[in-house]
Please model this.
Amino acid sequence: MNDTLIEKDIAPKNTIIHQEALSLNANMIESNGWLIANDYGSVIEEYKAFKEKTVLIDFSDNGVVRLSGKDSKEFLHKMSANDIFNLDENQIITSSLTNADGRFIDVVTVLAEDGGLTLICSEGNGKTITEWLTKYHFSEDLEISDQSGNYGLFALYGKDPAKIVPDFEGTILFSDNESLFMLVKNEPAEIWQDLLGSGVSPAGREAWNIRRVEWGIPRYGYEISSKANPLEAGLANSVSFSKGCYIGQEVIARMDTYDKVSRQLRRIHLSGEIDISGKIDLLSDNRIVGELTSSVFSFELGKQIGLGYIKKKFGEIGNELTISNSDVIAVVGEDFSKPKN
Model:
């Protein structure tokens, strides 16, 4: 787990709307070196608001990396799994960054703007991605800078949230009928307050984490890690299978061409609570056949559920597995390894 309670001798960074969150009586936790709102007084009420209202969540702890210079697109195109070179100004694409084994370094949202590229990385990951890209930067006309913490990154969840934001200044990075993610460069604290004034309710990271496990959304540090690859995680839409070389390309291409993806991201129904602070193996006849990566209590389902990677052979829905050093039974559920639309 990356989220911890605040200790007096730790000095994590504040997000750009930290004071606004405190004014709403947010209970803060540290996550990846940042203070974020765990909740605003009632996790269950915030959880319910996802369906009954429209909720506003601060993700300003996500990393932001800026690439500027005439070689920005060509450089990132060679570094990432998706097609960056053909991005037009103000276009957006999701791309996996992978290591030589085809496993995750991160999944980033790439925005082409102002003649360069802005990368929205996972929570607290801006410095790591900046250093990783810089390691491969030699003679290109390119500047790479970590802009994490300088902007607002806000998400809205609920019924048609896009109707709420037309009058607010910001760049919409993603939008569908039930969610919207926006980058705010100018006056983010003021925009945050204005959004709240429009009738949306603030929600903390704990309620969001329960919902994202229910939805099968992989999270950095949990399902997105150096032990997994985009095809296992259902993120094939973050990969181009027609572009040229990038780091990890040969491994991912072989997995796709020869159907060598051996594990699937699955919902897992649990008979009890599990602490996932360490590696949790899923077993069949005392053989390791998977790993539990997330565990939450679903108020909607009234039970503990999780996400995890399971070998295909053992992934039949309803299959019962045991958990290492635990009496909890894990029952295989929905397959989330298929690409999301």
